[in-house]
C-alpha cells in the first residue's frame, strides 16, 4: 500500500514526539535512540541549528548516559566501554562545513576533559565518594534542564521547517503505519503536540523563552531565522529521496499507555 500524502513530515513528527518524551522524562536508558534520531536529523537538515547547538546537545546526552552508569554502580568495564563508544579515544570530532575552528576546538576540549574525568574516577581515588557526589551535582537536574531546553529549541526549528501541520493528514499517516492507532490516544504525541502548539505550526512562546541561562548553547534570534530558512530548504530536498527509508519504524516509537511502563522505542 502506497504511503499517504504527508508521510515524510508526519514520520519526523512521530519520532520527535517519542524523543521529546524520553528527554522530558529523563529516561536516560533511551538516550542512545534519541542520539540516533538527532544524527539522522542532522544528516537530513544540517541547517536547522548551528553545529555547536547540535554537538553540545549530543555531547550532553552522551555524557549523561556514561554518568548514569557510574552513579548506578555499574562495573567500570561497562562504564569505560560506554565511554569508548560515545567518545572514541581518537578524539574524533565530526567534521561539519558549518563548524568554525573555535567550535571544533571547544568540542574536542570538552570531550577530552570529560574522558579524563571518567578515567580518573575508574582508578578509585581516595576521595572517590566526594568525586561521585560532585559528578552527581554537575550532571544533575540543572544540567538536564539545559539539555531539555536545547532539545526543545531543536524541535521548534524542525516544526518551523516542516509543512504546516494538518491534523487529519497526521491521523491518516498514523493509521497507515499502525492500523487502529489514534493520535489522541498516544501520550507521547499528545504531550508533544501540546508543547509544540499543534495544530498551529508555531511553537508556544513561553517554553522557547525559558529563563534558563545556558550561554552560547542557546540559539540567538539571528540563528533561529537562518535555521528556519535553510532548514526548510534542506528538509524539502531530503523529503524527495530519504523519508521513505525512515517511515517504517517510527510507529514503534509511540506508546499508548503510561510512559513509565512502556518504552517509546522498539
Automatic annotation (TrEMBL):
Record's GO cellular component, any one?
shelterin complex
Record GO terms (molecular function): telomeric DNA binding
Source taxon at top rank = Eukaryota
Q: Which is a Pfam family this sequence falls into?
A: TINF2_N
Signal peptide interval: none
Q: One biological-process term from Gene Ontology?
A: telomere capping
InterPro entries for this protein: TINF2 (IPR039098), TINF2_N (IPR029400)
**Residues in TERF1-interacting nuclear factor 2 N-terminal domain copies:** 20-169
Record's protein name: TERF1-interacting nuclear factor 2
Q: Which organism is it from?
A: Tupaia chinensis (Chinese tree shrew)
